[in-house]
Amino acid sequence: MHIQDNKKGTIVLAYSGGLDTSAIIPWIKENYNFNVVAFVADIGQSKKDLKGIKEKAIMSGALDCYIADLKNEFVEQYVYPMLSVGALYEGNYLLGTAIARPLIAKAQLNYAKKINAVGLSHGATGKGNDQVRFELAYTALDPTLQIIAPWREWIFRSREDLLKIFKRKNISTTASITKIYSKDENIFHISTEGGILEDPWNTASNDCWSWTTNPHNAPKHPEEIHLNIKSGRVISINGKKLNPYKCLKKLNKLGSKHAIGRIDIIENRLVGMKSRGCYETPGGTIIYQALRALEQLTLDRESIHWKNKIALEMSMLIYDGRWFTPLRDCLQKSSDIFSQYVEGEVIIELYKGSVIILKKRSFNSLYSSKFATFGNDKVYNQKDAQGFIRLLSLSSRIRALKNKNNIFLEYIYVALGWKIYERF
């Protein structure tokens, strides 16, 4: 059947095959009388998640299911630009879920326009950040399409409610009451939320970690890796050239083995509440540390300080779903100027959850042992520092002298019996 020829309007749903989006398909059909086409973004999630996903969508009532291969685009045009900026939300989170949303939304919208759909839908809850991320992207790219957000409309209040509906309708699902985590996976990261994690006093169980080895069980001996970096991107691992996607995949494997990239955090959601999540970003953590190591060598003091400000602003912008904005373009282009200097080699040690920078070098390095040495040198005149310090401290010296003179005058006023305020 050609979707364009069907008389009913069509909604394109961002479909993951999980509990929420599987329930949304029949709900939209029953409550809006629209056809539903499931849109699956392949951004490097597990093959088992994609296996049979089209059949599952159609069994749930979808008219069709389209799978878009976005893996390379995701890494090259979203993950690496973000890593090169150094965006890190609230000092911990490498934004693995947030950075995927603008790409999914854009590809979903483009497909909707291709089949003349009347609207878009997503499975984000009314409590979360993703509803904002999806809908800001939809609106920025085409505000004329209808948006359906079932979690803000339907009578179900929890995933337990959905499980009851699935059981009643004999729809299969891998979720259960005892294992009702919300997981999000792509080539960059995997996150786990919900379940026992909703109590901060509960220790994350083994079920909360999907990729990385428990640090206690990680190899007893460290492993060294040699990264070559050009223009803020890893281009080879241990001498083997790989494209960005394959580089990330390889580093994920190495990092997971050594328990790299695990964080268990409570973050501030955009909607105001706090939430807890276990995030695993092994390859991304290695790349992040390698890029920062080369920046230390190649960027001057003012540039690094400015870049840190850009990184902070970019982290909030990505977290809030404001990717398709002029501000994001501005921050990205500013960072790209710095990235052209960030190239060289880094040797890293991976050991039981730690990324240790052992060596780094670059043709663009501003570090000079001739100037920095504590030994005898012939390039730096230490007497020059005296004039520098006097100029740097000039405003402080003037303030101190002024305060000293004011105190002296106050002593005279008191001795003469004058009221201090009379001098004004």
TrEMBL record:
Parts forming coiled coils: none
Catalysed reaction equations from the record: L-citrulline + L-aspartate + ATP = 2-(N(omega)-L-arginino)succinate + AMP + diphosphate + H(+)
Record Gene3D superfamilies: Argininosuccinate synthetase, chain A, domain 2, HUPs, Single helix bin
Subcellular location: Cytoplasm
Binding site for L-aspartate: 125, 129-130
Arginosuccinate synthase-like N-terminal domain segment(s): 11-171
Positions of the Arginosuccinate synthase C-terminal domain: 181-398
Keyword Ligase appears in the UniProt entry: yes
Residues binding L-citrulline: 93, 129, 133, 182, 191, 267, 279
GO MF term list: argininosuccinate synthase activity; ATP binding
Entry EC no(s): 6.3.4.5
A cellular component annotation (GO) from this entry: cytoplasm
Keyword Acetylation: no
GO BP, sorted A to Z: argininosuccinate metabolic process; L-arginine biosynthetic process; urea cycle
Keywords: Amino-acid biosynthesis, Arginine biosynthesis, ATP-binding, Cytoplasm, Ligase, Nucleotide-binding
Binding site for ATP: 14-22, 41, 123
InterPro entries listed in its UniProt record: Arginosuc_syn_C, Arginosuc_syn_N, Arginosuc_synth, Arginosuc_synth_CS, Arginosuc_synth_type_1_subfam, AS_cat/multimer_dom_body, Rossmann-like_a/b/a_fold
Pathway the protein contributes to: Amino-acid biosynthesis; L-arginine biosynthesis; L-arginine from L-ornithine and carbamoyl phosphate: step 2/3
NCBIfam families in the record: argG, PRK00509.1
PANTHER family recorded: ARGININOSUCCINATE SYNTHASE (PTHR11587:SF2)
Complexes and interactors: Homotetramer.
Listed HAMAP family: Arg_succ_synth_type1
Family: Belongs to the argininosuccinate synthase family. Type 1 subfamily.
Protein's name according to its UniProt entry: Argininosuccinate synthase
Organism per entry: Buchnera aphidicola
